[in-house]
Amino acid sequence: MVAMAGIVASALLSSMEIRPFSMKENDEGHDEKMQWFADAKVGIFIHWGIYAVNGIDESWSFYNEYLSHEDYLKQLDGFTAAKYHPEKWAKLIRESGARYAVITAKHHDGFALWDTRYGDLNIHKTPANRDLIAPFVSALRKEKLKVGLYFSLPDWSYEDYPNFTRTKKRYSNDSLRWQRFLEYYQGQLKELSEKFRPDLFWFDGDWEFSPQKWQATKVREFLLKDNPGVIINSRLGGHGDYATPEQGVPVVRPKDKYWELCMTMNNSWGYQGNDKDYKTPNQIIRIFADCLSMGGNLLLDIGPKADGTIPDEQVAILKELGRWTKKHKEAIYGTRAGLPPGHFYGPSTLSADGKTLYLFITQKPVHPLVIKGLKNQVNRIRIVGDGTKLSHKVVGKMYWSSVPGLLYIDVPVEKCDPQVTVIALQLKGRIDLYREDGQVIESN
Ligand code: GLC
């Protein structure tokens, strides 16, 4: 079944464009390993750390010298996690329609949210004083959600890490100190891997040093040895399984086979009370539809407060996303990238067997929709999550020409979803597209 879906997907791809493979896409068994991720489509990113206390930029605020490291660390005293209910988080994540979550086990500031044996900057330095990752991992598993751990390679607080702030370095060349740092960070990673057996590791900050210096190959190897199915993002010096564009939605389809757009709801990763510049649910759902259309996932970020509550605005967005994903699940999970540009003015997806085409209608349809270059006969068209049958008409098809006509579909405005309406076209056979630039008629 998995292999079949792979064949259909690659056949669809090859009819459109040949893509260069990068990273681990050619490894044996890679597609099988990536299957849950490719089908999941939406995950929730969680940036939680002491930066939520003052509501300032995660780690970067001291690195960029907006405040001193000493003042940054004073936030430890305010990190209470007093109202932290990981089961509630997991339920809300499940309700949003996400199939996985990725939490910052450690950000660039070096503050560890789990009970680590390595280093001393961790939850025991705060009033929370307990492992915050362990109960979240169990809560996710109870909700049948996959577990992702974010881990920053740079650790700007660690005494043997070379970089401290933008202008201050601890050292530039000291192999003994670097060796101590390697042991420390790899020790933490092994600990996370053995303790939690995550489904995914989300690395960050690899840009500070070369893959060789991080020992990226070795790290990938030991993580896979412990946990053969673990998925690793691209930010381990290119030794990952999928690409991670950030914030801006890709305009052309990313060249990597597997990818995930990570994006904030407002302009901050962590909790910043005065950042009220939230994207609307409609904007987020449309961005999500663009990701789906290009075969990618969306990793949508939330930033809980220091007491462990999730800001109301973020809860509201997750709930509306949940209403929409629930209604349209057949057009989302397990689908493949949709039509290449030129056929339809909007996002689309295809069922894994290539026989159902889903069109995402992002604007009020004042006129019938049009699809160009679809060779298949269309058996039935309906509104997803509602069932209403829609009528259609093919215009401009000459019986003697192989160029398909224009397919017009009437969509009654009163049947539209308040966010994005999805319609399903059940095709006769697997999708077959006309991809040429027209022809001169030499004889009628
Ligand atoms: C950037 C930032 C970091 C944030 C991450 C999320 O790499 O360094 O603060 O956590 O993006 O993708």
Topology summary:
Elements: H1 2-14, H2 30-40, E1 42-46, H3 51-54, H4 60-63, H5 69-73, H6 86-96, E2 100-106, H7 133-142, E3 146-152, H8 175-196, E4 200-204, H9 211-214, H10 216-226, E5 231-232, E6 260-263, H11 281-293, E7 297-302, H12 312-327, H13 329-332, E8 336-337, E9 348-350, E10 356-361, E11 369-371, E12 378-383, E13 392-395, E14 406-409, E15 421-427
Parallel strand pairs: 1-2, 1-7, 2-3, 3-4, 4-5, 6-7
Antiparallel strand pairs: 8-9, 9-10, 10-15, 11-14, 12-15, 13-14
Helix pairs in contact: 6-7, 6-12, 8-10
The structure holds alpha-D-glucopyranose.
Concise overview:
This protein has 444 residues and is an alpha/beta fold. The protein has helices at 2-14, 30-40, 51-54, 60-63, 69-73, 86-96, 133-142, 175-196, 211-214, 216-226, 281-293, 312-327, 329-332; strands spanning 42-46, 100-106, 146-152, 200-204, 231-232, 260-263, 297-302, 336-337, 348-350, 356-361, 369-371, 378-383, 392-395, 406-409, 421-427. It has a 7-stranded parallel sheet with strand order 5-4-3-2-1-7-6, sandwiched between helices. Strands 8-9-10-15-12 form a 5-stranded antiparallel sheet. A 3-stranded antiparallel sheet has the order 11-14-13, with no helix packed on it.
